[in-house]
Amino acid sequence: MKRAVYPGSFDPMTYGHLDIINRASEIFDVLIVSVLNNNQKTPLFSVEERVKILREATRHLSNVKVDSFSGLLTNYAAENDLHVAVRGLRAITDFEYELQLAQTNRLLSGGKLDTVFLTTSLEYAYLSSSSVKEIASFGGDISKAVPDFVAEQIFEKYRSR
Ligand code: PNS
Predict the structure, then answer these.
(1) For strand 84-89 and strand 64-69, is the pairing parallel, antiparallel, or unpaired?
(2) Which ligand 1 atom lies nearest to the CA of residue 75?
(3) pLDDT digits over 57-82, tens only?
(4) How far is Cα 63 from Cα 4, in angstroms, rounded to an integer?
(5) How far is the CA of 61 from the centre of ligand 1 (A)?
(6) Over the stretch 97-144, which tens digit does the pLDDT of each residue have?
């Protein structure tokens, strides 16, 4: 059975992430989408909120599970017997960082964790969680970037600030 992990911050999940999740779920028997609990960053959404959003958005995909992790991805992967990480590549600007991450993970895991890249569908190539947050913070239109129920939660966060 081929299992893979799709790690990320998902703050918040966008249609770009969903595109990768949908496609990776067709390639692997089980896909675990795992939210990094990074206490060095101040996220818009808590880890619990991000997990809940991802669960809601992927509930039609029976082989997708949503989880969270802290610390090194290689430790999480080893503890859960996962040997493939999935990452999306939007543009050449992502490449250097992603290459470094993939090679570091391979080294840290003693060759046990490989990374598989999926190129983001062109219609989402411009999308990032940061730009979604910036647009939303100024009351802009994010309807093409995230599902409606996510947009509502993002605007609610900025309203209550
Ligand atoms: O969505 P992001 O922020 O681009 O995801 C980055 C992520 C979570 C995949 C990456 O930062 C990560 O795996 N962090 C955990 C710590 C780690 O294992 N770092 C790799 C060695 S530098």
Answers:
(1) unpaired
(2) 18
(3) 999 999 999 999 999 999 999 999 99
(4) 11
(5) 24
(6) 999 999 999 999 999 999 999 999 999 999 999 999 999 999 999 999
Residue 100 CA, closest ligand 1 atom number: 22
User: What are the tokens at 97?
Assistant: 């960082």
State the first-to-last Cα distance of the chain, in angstroms, to the nearest integer: 45
DSSP 70-131: -S-HHHHHHHTT--EEEEEE-SHHHHHHHHHHHHHHHHHTTT--EEEEEEPPGGGTT--HHH
pTM (whole model) above 0.85: yes
72 lines ligand 1 (CB under 6 A): yes
Query: Residue 86 CA to chain centroid, in angstroms?
Result: 9
Give pLDDT, residue 71: 97
Question: Hey, what are 36's tokens?
Answer: 């990094």
CA distances from 120 to 54, 98, 146, 154 (A): 18, 14, 15, 23
Half-sphere exposure of 114 (CA within 13 A, CB side): 4
Provide the 8-state DSSP code for 15: H
Nearest to 18 by CA among 33, 38, 2: 33
- Per-residue CA distances from 13 to 8, 38, 132 (Å): 9, 16, 10
Alpha carbon distance 7, 32 (integer Å):
8
